[in-house]
Amino acid sequence: MGLVVQKYGGSSVADAEGIKRVAKRIVEAKQNGHQVVVVVSAMGDTTDELIDLAEQVSPMPAGREFDMLLTAGERISMALLAMAIKNLGHEAQSFTGSQAGVITDSVHNKARIIDVTPGRIRTALDEGNIAIVAGFQGVSQDKKDITTLGRGGSDTTAVALAAALDAEVCEIYTDVDGVFTADPRVVKKARKIDWISFEDMLELASSGSKVLLHRCVEYARRYNIPIHVRSSFSGLQGTWVSNEPQGDRKVEQAIISGVAHDTSEAKITVVGVPDKPGEAAAIFRTIADSEINIDMVVQNVSAASTGLTDISFTLPKTEGRKAIDALEKQKAAIGFESLRYDDQIGKISLVGAGMKTNPGVTASFFEALSDAGVNIELISTSEIRISVVTRADDVNEAVRAVHTAFGLDSDSAEAVVYGGTGR
């Protein structure tokens, strides 16, 4: 048996009973002959509670100290889990991200992994121990400061360790039974997917699917690490994410893999932009220099009478204030008239590698939205994805309408969400 990396999310280790249940599952893997490395998140909503506490103490906490605070949650989880495993008669050692050799850049709160040097993990495994690693964190290469990896950081930690240790599989344990055709919290008849390609999973992740984050899937694709998404609350097979179906499983690529939605974005419209070369470049250079990622971009046709146009783009709500401030500082240099900010929007995306060879998908998508009375504000497409922006209040109804229109509803029992607050 080979080496397995398992990652457990906050809902899986939310309390003492959850930690003991996870410990039993880890011991079972060890008893089946695997070497086991475990990556854990903070318990339940611990990270959110620490963020709330920091904001009460300081409205703008220093990045270095903020990271030092947030990493405490995972250190609590890893130590308690190691204790629970030892109570079951097996040896376990816990390691912080820095002790595990997770080397990052110096960007606090959203650091990127540069390298993984898991010498201490290998030593622990060679000695017959189970290694427990705190997810979501690392150490900066230059200053040796503690860093955090941002949203989905524990998943990324797990895949990075799996790649560095040449693991057979990276198992991501969560509060649902796998990857579904839509969020089962919104679509009760969402269907579990047995296998999905890295390509389709990347599109779903970037479009708002929260089961796996984009960075984690990208890392797995780069190093060809199969991911098995499962629930820690059941013994069911989950969803395999890989280049090809695993083992003898022959799974045909579906035309449509799923419907994703995202209500964490806002829209900024730059009004009255002179329609001449260089204006759009100046706007997006300002955004880029502020280290803000943008998603969808639409430029209107310029008015013949004025020679002015409007440019709209979407970005994370958390970056909205920073983007507005940066653009206001460059207003005179760019020459636009005004800015409009809207954070009551939602994005719905239809994803599937099969759509590029199946005519009519786009028409069916827009017909489903029309029949549901959903108005479209922005449209963006790729070979395997169609995304639209609508009013936030229309998102859930739009997701359900599109899911049904493409025959994705399950005929069996409703999808189960075992835990988690979704906060």
Oligomer: single chain
* Spatial strand sequence of the major β-sheet: 3-6-2-1-9-11-12-10
**Binned strand content:** 15-25%
- Flag low-confidence runs: none
Q: Tell me the number of strands.
A: 20
**Could you give the distance between the termini?**
38 Å
Rounded to the nearest angstrom, the radius of gyration is 23 Å
List the total number of helices. Answer: 12
Main β-sheet, in a few words? 8 strands, mixed
Overall mean pLDDT: 92
Helix content class: 25-40%
The rough form would be described as globular
What class do helices, strands and sheet pairing give? alpha/beta
Essential attributes:
423 residues, alpha/beta, 8-stranded mixed sheet, 4-stranded mixed sheet, 12 helices, 33% helix, globular
Account of the 3D structure:
The chain has 423 residues and is an alpha/beta fold. Helix content is 33%, strand content 25%. The protein has helices at residues 16-31, 46-57, 63-87, 119-126, 153-164, 198-206, 214-223, 279-289, 320-329, 331-334, 361-371, 395-405, and strands at 3-8, 35-40, 92-95, 102-104, 113-116, 130-134, 137-140, 146-148, 169-174, 195-197, 227-231, 239-242, 258-262, 265-274, 297-299, 308-316, 338-342, 345-351, 378-382, 385-391. Strands 3-6-2-1-9-11-12-10 form an eight-stranded mixed β-sheet, sandwiched between helices. Strands 5-4-7-8 form a four-stranded mixed β-sheet. A four-stranded antiparallel β-sheet has the order 13-18-20-19, sandwiched between helices. α1 crosses α3, α2 runs antiparallel to α3 and α11 crosses α12 (395-405). The radius of gyration is 23 Å and the shape is globular. The model has no long low-confidence stretch (mean pLDDT 92).
